[in-house]
Every structure is written in C-alpha cells, then in structure tokens.
Amino acid sequence: MPDASTGSLIKSYRYGRGYLIFIYGFIAVLLGLAAFLAYGYSIFSTPGATTSGGTRFNGPPEVLLYAAGFLVFIALCMFALSRWQKKLRDARYDVHEHGIRQVTSSVDEFVPFVEMDDLYLFASGQTLTAGLINNLAYRRHAGEQFRRVNPHMPKLDEFMELVRDLHVQARLPIALETLSQGGSVQFNYADTQQVWGKRVTGNFLNVETKPLLITPQTLEVDGRRFPISLLREANVSNWTEKVVIKDNDGQVVLSTIATGIMSMDVFFNVLGWMQEQQQVAVTGKVLAD
Fold first, then answer.
1. Structural domain containing residue 57
2. CA neighbor of 254 nearest in space, from 220, 207, 277
3. Which of 22, 82, 166, 212 has its CB 3.0 to 4.6 Å from that of 187, i.e. a possible disulfide?
4. Quick check: is 77 in a domain?
5. Looking at the 3D structure of the chain, how many domains does it have?
C-alpha cells in the first residue's frame, strides 16, 4: 500500500553500470600487462638470460620495468576515474505521484513536488553549446543544495518529462490559488550572462538567482513592475534558447535564457493564465460598457 505522503511509485530510475565495468576490465588488463613485463624484467635482468623457448631480449631490461611502471600509473589514473564515475552514478531516483525519492549509499530523502521551489534544467557536455537540456536539478529553496540528475542516466528524457509534468501538476494549482486570493508568487532566475558563464566553467550548481515576482496585476523583474495586461506573449527562440517578454510598446520586460528560469514550466503556465484572466477582464469590461 503506497504511503499517502509520497503517493504511488510510478517508476524507478538508476544509472547504468556498463561504463564502470569497462573501466574495471581495462584496469585488470593494464595490471596484467604490467605484471607480465615485470616478470620479463625478472628474467632478462640477468645478462645473457633467455626464456625456456630460447627468446632473448636485446634491449636494456630496465625498459620492461619502466613500461610496467607506466602501465601501473595509467591503471591508478583509471581507478581514480572510476571512483569519480561511481560517485556520479551512485543515486537511484524513485518518482512517486507526489515527489522524488533520492537513494544513495548515504542518503535516502524524499522531496515533495509541492515543496520544490526550484526545478533547474540545463545543458552540459557535448550538447552544451547547442543548449539541449540533459541535466535536471531540484531543491526545496535557495538555502538548500541542488540534487542533480546528470546525463549518464538511461532514459533521462523520459525521467525529465515525467518529473516536469508532475511538478507542474503539483505547483500550478497552488500558485493560481495564491494569486486568486490576492497573493504573490515568486520564481527565481539566472540571467543570460550567468547561464553562459556556468557553461564555460562547468560549475552549474553554484548559481545566484534573481527574483521574478508575479502578482495579480503585475510582473516584477529586477525591481521593475510591469502590468500583466500590457504584456505580449513570451517569444521563445528555438535557435538561441532565449525567451523575450515585451510590453505593448515593444519595451523589453525580460530577456534571458529560458533554462535559466527555475521551474520555468510553472512560470510560463502561471504567466499565461494571468494574461488570459486579464484579457477576459478587459473583454468583459468592454462588453459591459
């Protein structure tokens, strides 16, 4: 019977182990070759020595020892790489109806979607310059560290789509209810310069955000307030990833990389709903007049 706080388990996602197995196998081959060369050195270090088959090594026997040492060094480097890769692949993510459970060797933590303020999507690796999303990170609020799901996870696209849909389903009704009661809803975003800076440095999770505040009447960006009734629809470019929001006079209200907006799916849904409500109100007033 599912826990009422988590809801039913929809699907579990974990990282593949194939790459780690390949690294461990490669390390074993390197160490085997190093042992073979060291054994050869022990035989040929005696002047004039030959194997039982009559093979003679004409070069300096120290070459065999140096080669063995070099192979051991490579094996140690590969072992260090395997530890790093194992850390990247340590977690399992159980997607429930109401949140995500992250399970590692030292952590077992559930984060409900309704408490997840920042759902952060970004690109890394070979897709970085193209901006294709291949990472998802989430946290309750800015005071927490992000929990990152990286590109090494199989079926990552399926995972991201599922989490994004469930997050919108959980957060959107709360945001709309808050606005309908006269309250405000805050989103956070990283500006374009910072997004590209993270792509250059690779330090994606150390991000400083600015507030985007939606009230029943206005959108507040960097301390400036713009009436929602005067905003045009957001223009998102598939080529540059940039989202641009302008008012009716053509003045730029917000211009940034779309993935720099935390919980961007919820943000665009809320903003679109507010614009529709404003349009309905204006239309109703015109008809009444």
1. 17-88
2. 220
3. 212
4. yes
5. 2
Considering 53, 88, 123, which residue would you say is the last residue of a domain?
A: 88
Structure tokens at 69: 């040492």
The Cα 18–Cα 179 span in angstroms is 49
pLDDT tens column, 108-141:
999 999 999 999 998 887 665 556 788 999 999 9
| Structure-block tokens of residue 155 | 């079926």
Q: How far is CA 241 from CA 86, 168, 195, 236, in A?
A: 32, 21, 11, 7
**CA dihedral (22, 124, 267, 175) positive or negative:** positive
Report the alpha-carbon distance of residue 33 to residue 22 in Å, rounded: 17
Helices (H), the chain: 18-44, 62-88, 156-180, 192-201, 264-288
Give the model confidence (pLDDT) of 38-57 as tens digits. 877 777 665 554 444 545 54
Task: Pick the last residue of a domain from 73, 88, 103.
Answer: 88
